[in-house]
Design goal:
The protein is an alpha/beta fold. Helices cover 26% and strands 26% of the residues. It has helices at 5-12, 41-54, 89-100, 102-106, 124-139, 149-155, 182-195, 240-245, 309-322, 371-384, and strands at 31-37, 59-62, 78-79, 117-121, 145-148, 170-174, 178-179, 199-201, 206-211, 217-222, 225-234, 253-265, 273-276, 281-285, 290-301, 331-342, 348-351, 357-361. Strand 14 and strand 15 form a beta hairpin. Helix 2 crosses helix 10 (371-384) and helix 3 crosses helix 10 (371-384). It is globular.
Length: 417
């Protein structure tokens, strides 16, 4: 749509009134073919791919709060597929390929910036691990470039090159990786799913599951009434064990708080996404100039969405070791999301033992970057009652079978973001 100059001026001074709604706000119907519990990135994208790929449009997405209020709006927006395991790489690389065309597909700018992800190493052991991971990426058709010390410092001139404890030895770069605008991802998928016919129902909390005579799941109980469904798909990042506990399933995952930070706006100084392996710090710079960074999860179980001062201190110390020139930059705000930490660091994208119940959860640090690919696979699984080959390894029985997808050491360093 084209606007004249006078029309644009008029739009600028009208306040926040008169905007067309991005998606409808329907009342819940009594029955849907599929009810998706969770209106975050994975839930909204699953509704979209159910309609687009499988022509399943009688779908409801139930969100306890408002669209964008959960983890999809509480992360550091990193998108990458620089993984080690052959069972991980195909899923995350497929997701990255979907990211590359997502703005055009959704007709909504998700601001995906392929500025690269650079994992800097500081020891010979970390170099060996980076070479191994880079080779695994290349074998699987993923872009990977090894950089020497000078090349790293050319990209990241503010990194402390003379740190006696953690010298810069080089880095592993994935040039196609980068980051996106998290809110735009939620809004883009919400609008696209709505236009495909899905009902997006906000302020609708699931309080229980309906069961049939043989134990099968037949719908959900909500604070807005009972909704029956042919199939129920759960995608509630951070609260997976809590929601699945309502149906009597105890999952091998725990909920932890993961904090993130943004500084005041400064001139462009970080033109990639960089990680400091020793201190578990990752940093990028937003289009508005703020430095966005984060660290490790809190060490205790929690469902809170707030930060705390010990993690502020821990991350600030890592920042000073990594880029001491930023010591006088002021912290603008920090926040927290809730992440499901599984025992092997990998998610669940599968049909559950209960008939008609499907699960997408347990994403650890990986949820945002996996949204397109995981939801694409989850929609396939829900529609067909069986997994796609990309998500086949991520089933609930893998621990009992002795087949964990051990991703805890599959990033550049153990438990990497």
């Amino acid at each position: 749509m084209r606007y004249s100059i006078s029309s644009l001026v008029k739009q600028a001074f009208r306040g926040h009134s008169g905007w067309p709604e991005a998606f409808r706000h329907p009342e819940p119907a009594k029955h849907y073919d599929v009810v998706i519990v969770g209106g975050g990135g994975h839930g909204l994208a699953t509704a979209y791919y159910l309609a687009k790929n499988h022509e399943i449009t009688n779908v409801a997405v139930l969100e306890r709060g408002w669209i964008g209020s959960g983890n999809v709006g509480r992360n550091t927006t990193i998108v990458r597929s620089n993984y080690l395991l052959n069972s991980e790489i195909p899923l995350l690389e497929w997701s990255l390929k979907l990211w590359e065309g997502l703005s055009e597909e959704l007709n909504y700018n998700v601001m995906f910036s392929q500025r690269g992800v650079l994992d800097i190493f500081h020891t010979d052991g970390q170099r060996d691990e980076a070479v191994r991971r880079g080779n695994a990426m290349i074998v699987n058709g993923v872009d990977a470039v090894m950089l020497d010390r000078k090349q790293v410092l050319d990209m990241m001139p503010l990194v402390d090159e003379n740190n006696g404890r953690y010298p810069v030895l080089g880095g592993l770069l994935q040039p196609r990786a980068g980051n996106a605008r998290h809110d735009a991802v939620a809004w883009g998928y919400a609008r696209a799913a709505d236009r495909m016919g899905a009902d997006i129902i906000q302020n609708c909390e699931v309080t229980g599951f309906c069961r049939g005579p043989n134990g099968e799941v037949t719908g959900v109980e909500t604070n807005r009434g009972q909704i029956s469904a042919g199939k129920v798909a759960v995608a509630v990042a951070g609260h997976t064990s809590q929601v699945m506990g309502m149906v009597g399933m105890k999952l091998p995952c725990e909920s932890h708080t993961l904090q993130a930070f943004v500084s005041e706006a400064v001139k462009p100084c970080v033109n990639t996404v960089a990680t400091f392996g020793v201190g578990h710090l990752y940093i990028s710079q937003s289009d508005k100039g703020g430095l966005v960074f984060g660290g490790m999860v809190d060490g205790y179980n929690s469902y809170t969405q707030r930060g705390n001062l010990p993690i502020v201190e821990d991350v600030a110390e890592a920042m000073m070791m990594f880029m001491p020139a930023l010591g006088r930059v002021r912290l603008l705000r920090h926040w927290a999301g809730v992440v499901d930490m599984t025992m092997d660091g990998s998610p669940f994208i599968c049909k559950t033992p209960l008939e008609n119940l499907y699960l997408n959860g347990g994403w650890n640090y990986t949820g945002f970057k996996a949204i397109p690919g995981a939801a694409w696979c989850f929609a396939h699984t829900v529609a067909n009652g069986a997994p796609h080959k990309f998500n086949a390894p991520f089933h609930l029985d893998r621990f009992a079978e002795g087949r964990p997808v051990d991703a805890t050491g599959g990033g550049p360093f153990p438990n990497h973001h």
